[in-house]
Amino acid sequence: MGKPKTANSKKAAAKTAAKTATKPAVKAAAKPTTKATKAAKSAKPAAKPAATKAAKPAASLASIPTPPPVAGSQDAYDTYLPAASALAASAVLPFRTDASLAYHNVSTGVASLLARQADAEALPGIDVASLSALPDQCLALAYAAGLALQANGGSDGAVATLFAQASALRRKLFNGADALVDAGLLPATNVAALHAGKGKLDAANDLVGLAGLFTKNAAAIRGKTAVTAAEVAQAAQLGSQLQAMLAPTGAKKQRGADAASTANVRDRMWTLVKQGHDALWRACAYLYGHQEIDARVPPLQSHAATTSNRKKANAAKKAAAGSGASASSATKSAGATGATPAS
Questions:
Q1: SS3 letters across 57-79
Q2: 256 pLDDT band (50/70/90 cuts)?
């Protein structure tokens, strides 16, 4: 009877040993799996901030400045007045847009045309020289619009808005000019002459004069003033625009002082610009195709160029952010496996 008991005891002991040996193995196998799961869970939130941070710069670079206001040019006005006056009354279109926006969009179109000037000159019925002058026609339009506004009772609100911008800019340019005079970089007599005088028209004249001084002495004062080239250009534009709006009565009479007459000239100038823009559009549509035409020659009355530039900036930043995120993921993966990412 003792032997069976011993055999049974041995079997029981073997079973117990097997169970004992199996349990730690299971636990040992389970532990790494649990740790890996926890590590994976803890790794997920770390990826989200990286994607969020990468998206932020695209939004900040998406804002592109609105094109600055463009001042009219009396010289351009006088140049194109005969052609505008020769238009048939039935062909004249009413002006209901922004001359500054038209100028910037036309300038974009002319740049596209001149980028392929040789091809454009080979097109039948296309006068490249005439189309290249379209920005000047827009300056004539802006001047005519200013005369019409002035003759139409002055539009005090519009004058006040422009004058507020001009006053702040004039103050900054004078501060910069005075500092440059002290440094011996600008002629003191010229700046002193601009300081003399009072009134809105005098302020407009000051802006034009200061812009001329900064432009003439650009090489000597480069890097030595807080006044930027963009502010100098804006001063010239605002000054000229205010000069047109605040011109003495005698200057108004030379072009017809009554509102109907000046408005008619303004509309005729607009018609010239519209006709030129149509020809420019046709030429560039042939050169670049219809898929690119609105970017190459933006519509006169839209912000198409600005919108297109904003979209391109966003797309570029998103692509850069995506590349950065991919590189970051590859580096992390390589670090975890001990591999080296491809260069």
A1: HHHHHCCCCCCCCCCCCHHHHHH
A2: very low
- Quickly list H helices, the chain: 2-61, 74-85, 99-115, 117-121, 128-132, 134-151, 156-182, 188-195, 200-216, 218-221, 229-245, 249-253, 259-288, 293-296, 304-337
Q: Distances in Å between the alpha carbon of 241 and those of 109, 136, 152, 231?
A: 24, 15, 16, 15
How far is the C-alpha of 316 from the C-alpha of 313, rounded, in Å?
5
Report which DSSP code applies to 339: -
CA 321 to each of CA 251, 309, 329, 333: distance values in angstroms, whole numbers, following the listed order: 57, 18, 12, 18
Average pLDDT over residues 20-49: 48
Distance CA 151, CA 26 (A): 96
Answer for the pair 276, 130: CB distance below 8 angstroms, yes or no. yes
Percent of all residues in the chain with a pLDDT value above 70, rounded to a whole number: 61
Return the higher-pLDDT residue of 204 and 36.
Answer: 204
Query: Contact 223/127 with Cβ under 8 angstroms?
Result: no
8 Å CB contact between 143 and 244 = yes
Angle at 68 (CA atoms; ends 171, 297), nearest 5 degrees: 165
Give the model's pLDDT for residue 273: 96
Q: Which residues are within 8 A (CB) of 236 and not within 5 positions of it... i.e. 6 or more apart?
A: 71, 207, 208, 211, 212, 215
pTM: 0.50
Angle CA 326–328–329, to nearest 5: 65
Measure the CA–CA gap between 194 and 178, rounded to whole angstroms.
11
pLDDT tier for residue 300 given thresholds of 50, 70 and 90? confident
Question: Which residues make Cβ contacts (< 8 Å) with residue 151, sequence separation at least 6?
Answer: 252, 256, 257, 258, 259, 261, 262, 263
